[in-house]
Fold these 2 entries.
Entry 1:
Amino acid sequence: MTLDFTPAATRQFGELTARISGHKLAVLVDGTVTSAPIIRGAIRGGHASITLGNGASPLDAQRLAMHLAVLHRHCGISLADQDVFANVVGGVRIGETGSDLALILAVLSSYRNRVLPRDLIVFGEIGLTGEVRGVPNGQERLREAIKHGFRRAIIPRGNRPKPALADMDVRAIATLNEALDVLNEGA
């Protein structure tokens, strides 16, 4: 579904979504509620859209929309004028939040047309304030990644290995902005 606004409506919708942040907004078409996303922040770009791909659920779309809103709000990167599609190889569904950071970095990689390093592993849960939270089994994930040839990692500070891993350059970050800084260092 795509919504395009006039300049006046853009301002009004931005004010509305700022006021109701954290609450649902019902979208009605011909008197039927077609969607009721939770508004995560002001939407000021002139249009809004969420497209469910093959096999995607409303929850998947809401989660992606939330991460894109956090990226805009806390990193100043708006993808509101882009079509964003996210898919996992083989149609696997990822239910755990540890993939949040990897998803956003993959989306940015595509948007910027810059390939992520092949030997990079990324994990972490993204919160509404742009913080990157630790995930369960962080140490095991890193040890397993080393076995599969990964030599670099961007992970939540809460999952930093103690002691440091000899076979991997681990960058422990606290925010999405810090993750972007680490990626830009290697660019």
Entry 2:
Amino acid sequence: MNQENTDPTETDSNAEDNTPIRVLLVDDEPVLSQIIKLSLEKLGNFEVTLVTDPLIAVDKALEAKPDIALLDVVMPQKNGIEVAYSLRKTPGFEELPLVFLSASVMERGDKYWLNTDEGMYKEVKDDIVRSCTLLEKPVMLDQLIEVLEEALQRTLPIKR
């Protein structure tokens, strides 16, 4: 006779906790992005797809099927905001949680300010940016984990 497992510690969410969280990291700074990738993967439950060329970010997202994307804001050829728009227009990624990473953006209250090439800050009045989380570089791992947990709306099984 087959008996259903009635152990309250065995839940579907526990099974899901063993599944790696797929992260798409789009950043043109190879050293910093490699540090973020290795740091997350060392924790054991992240699978990071690193993209240093923002022009191929959507193609790599289609291959990797990420749970969340980390996007550098200031990149050559295509900035993180443009990558975010491209992702949002791609079927399957309309609701993908996005986290922007940048040393050139400041968050003050409910407004974002982008450092322009001229060294001046201008207000970002972009709904995609304003609806996402912003992390200022340099990124601390504990802070990144908190932001990932918040963006994914769940507690991550991470040994800290």
